Amino acid sequence: RTFRIAAIPADGVGPEVVAAGRTVLDALAARSGGAFAFDWTEFPWGCGYYEKTGLMMPEDGLDELADYDALYFGAVGWPSVPDHVSLWGLRLRICQNFDQWANVRPVRFHPGVVSPLRAADSTELDWVVVRENSEGEYAGLGGRNLAGRGPGNEVALQTALFTERGCERILRFAFDLARTRSEQKVSSVTKSNAQQYGMVLWDELFARVAPDYPDVATESVLVDAMSAKFVLHPEDLSVVVASNLNADILSDLGSALAGSLGLAASANLNPERRFPSMFEPVHGSAPDIAGRGVANPIGALGSAALMLDHFDLPAEAARLRAALDATTAAGVLTPDVGGSAGTDDVVGAVLDHLAG
Ligand code: NAI
Ligand code: MG
């Protein structure tokens, strides 16, 4: 079967890591003996496109993407465009309109990469952050210059949205995911002591849904305590489910604990499969290292593995993850994880392990 993939490399290191992913996925397809293939279309959207057109993507860009089997995304953002304009104009526009309400962000530790968490090998640790990806603090509700108060005395409002449907579906998604893992546990994260409406609704729904999964252990933890737990007791974690903002922050913490933001993979899923899902590294466009050939491609390659899972090719996904582990274990590491390899060196090592 041929999978049609829309690649949206966008800005900064995005094109460098998307190119890495395409190379590796095409190599996997080439050795599948015709069992599967990838048909790529690349869309030149992002901040460069904005400078030419005033838009991050064409008005009808979503229509252009709608029929692909998946979207493979790099990163968006460049200093020439305000970040809220670039993020909302491309990445969030896609996530929201394609109802990619579940963002799955595994925290994986890689052999050969020293984690700040422990000097010793942490590769036995792995947990996954499930992020509510359609509402919460990133619902886009609010406004500026409220009550007629202008510059110097401005009032701005940023409102979080919590719906029963939105919370319940992400909580059930987390429980279903926990059932596929060796440790069947869901940790729900809120700040319901201080945020007494939406977060309390979330907590209540968690308590209501949990009895449907009697085989899954549960805990409800405040986000500040959970951030400490990530550092002090990560072995207690399996599936961590949280709202849009809280999970965004926790997943960056998780990837930093694994060794670098450049390692972390993510999937923005439309679980009903009415719209394409989008696979992207957790990191941003990294303007400080863009164009130098040193971006860590492991996060983008791990995202490619999540895409293979989504295509129902679990053996291929496992093969790719094993090649990533073999590459880091052999010390082929980019500067962000203490090595001196370039992006291409990492890709070359991954290809060698896939061929071997
Ligand atoms: P960032 O993730 O781009 O960079 C943070 C730090 O991590 C930098 O020191 C960077 O060099 C390093 N880093 C990130 N990815 C790396 C990789 N693959 N290899 C090696 N090092 C890597 O976050 P920052 O600096 O806050 O944001 C930069 C731009 O990216 C902004 O415009 C922001 O809005 C955007 N952004 C986009 C995201 C997305 O497209 N999903 C997510 C986060 C930020
Ligand atoms: Mg983030």
Automatic annotation (TrEMBL):
Instruction: Please list the residue ranges annotated as the Isopropylmalate dehydrogenase-like domain.
Output: 4-350
Q: Tell me which PROSITE patterns the record gives.
A: IDH_IMDH
Q: Which cofactor does it need?
A: Mg(2+); Mn(2+)
Q: Which GO terms describe its molecular function?
A: tartrate dehydrogenase activity
Taxonomically, the superkingdom here is Bacteria
Q: Where are the transmembrane segments?
A: none
The name on file for this protein is: D-malate dehydrogenase (decarboxylating)
Recorded hits in SUPFAM superfamilies, A to Z, give:
Isocitrate/Isopropylmalate dehydrogenase-like (SSF53659)
Q: What NCBIfam families would the database entry show?
A: TTC
EC number(s) given by UniProt: 1.1.1.83
Its recorded reaction(s) are: (R)-malate + NAD(+) = pyruvate + CO2 + NADH
Q: Which UniProt keywords apply?
A: Manganese, Metal-binding, NAD, Oxidoreductase
Q: Which family does it belong to?
A: Belongs to the isocitrate and isopropylmalate dehydrogenases family.
Query: Any keyword ATP-binding?
Result: no
